Amino acid sequence: MAPPSLPSVPPLPPVPPLVRGRKSPSAGAGLSTLLSVGLALFLVDAFLSFADDTFIALFDLHGLTSLRGLVSFLTLLVALLIYVLMAFLPSIPKRLFLPLTIFPVGVILGIIPFLIYCYDRIRWIAWAFSFCQVLLGIGILYWVQSGWKLQWPLVPEKLLCSAGFRWRNFFKFLLMNLLILGPAIMVYIGVCAGLAVDHFSDGFLSLRPAGLTVRVKKYVRADGHTIHLIPMIHIGDSQFYRKLSASFPTNSITLMEGVTDEKELLTNRISYKVVASQLGLAEQQNVFKPQGQVIRADVDIAEFNTNTINLLNLVMRVHAGGRLDPATIATLMRPPPPGFEKELFDDLLRKRNRHLLGAIQARLADSKTIMVPWGAAHMPEIAREIGKSGFHMAETKEYMAIRFGSSSKARNDAEEDGKAKAPK
């Protein structure tokens, strides 16, 4: 007897082949949501920044600044995340989100030249940057939404291509950042730093790839009197100080910088030893020994305001200790009293400049050659004031004050070893 026949089983449907690079629906939806959040934060930050800058520029009101700072910080974090994901996910449309992610950094870099040359109009410049952010955000929103409509997600999943991770895209993105974008930003910052040094020192300092250069300027008057303005820095190469000292004429009068402290109001002596030793440089007061007659032409610390004296004591305590203790950090975190910046500027610059100008006028009768080796910050005002007395610039000489790299430390160490081995 034949066995009973089994019922026929329909064949199983074929399994679709695995397509390389195809993203799952959940992954695509998640990426779409992340990009939408990034775009939404960018738009909120744009309108909030525009409103805040408008209130600041027109009415000097800062009511939105704190909220704006928080939103800007979150926007920057999400933009950084999206930017990094571009290296791993070619599906992100770079033509849309590359401008969005680099805009915050672009604003920071782009505003630097305006801070140097147009600081008095910085409020309106910041307003212009915020307005550009609004236009960029609206333009990207219009593009991804295909018109003037608003629906979530802001970035539809259909805009994302199906490409998965690709090594070629990863290495191209990495090399672009390491070999092009990163070096370009460093060069740009270096150029801006050089422009800032030259502008704010009125040409008395120059920042170059090799190091920091000072420009000694000679001013002459029709009666034969000369004034040499020598921009100084408190720490530098020992060779710089020695060459400068040897250039002073023996028949000149040198009006030296350096506040006195007759009433002993400073709790710590003004010293730059810690910073100088860490950078492998020399202190001006230890190496700079000019020829000729040297006269102290600075004010006494008692002429400063109490707030300025307290700040100097705080700064010198940090310099002396070489580190920040909790008490010092707590003091630094306290908001300054009203008008403190103006007091500080007047004490450290204006008041001392007026005293120096009086000393210059008094000593012109004693010598035809006056040497003024003062801090570079004092030079612009001193140059303008002596110009009103008939002096005009006749000569400029440059000195390399600080050389970048390890050469400065090695040279100074070699000089110290040589002095230690020299016979006494």
Short description:
By secondary structure, this protein is an alpha/beta fold. The chain has helices spanning 25-59, 65-88, 94-110, 112-117, 122-145, 167-200, 238-246, 273-279, 284-287, 306-321, 326-333, 340-363, 379-387, 407-421, and strands at residues 205-208, 211-220, 226-232, 235-236, 253-256, 282-283, 293-296, 369-375, 392-403.
Question: What can you tell me about this protein's structure?
Answer:
Helix content is about 55%, strand content about 10%. Strands 1, 2, 3, 5, 7, 8 and 9 form a seven-stranded mixed β-sheet that branches. A two-stranded antiparallel ribbon has the order 4-6. The protein contains 14 helices and nine strands. The chain has helices spanning about 25-60, 65-90, 95-110, 110-115, 120-145, 165-200, 240-245, 275-280, 285, 305-320, 325-335, 340-365, 380-385, 405-420; strands at about 205-210, 210-220, 225-230, 235, 255, 280-285, 295, 370-375, 390-405. The protein has two domains: about 25-195, no CATH class; about 205-420, no CATH class. By secondary structure, the chain is α/β, with parallel strands linked by helices. Helix 1 runs antiparallel to helix 5, helix 2 packs across helix 3 (about 95-110) and helix 3 packs antiparallel against helix 5. A hairpin with a 2-residue loop joins strand 1 and strand 2 (about 210-220). The chain is elongated and about 85 Å long.
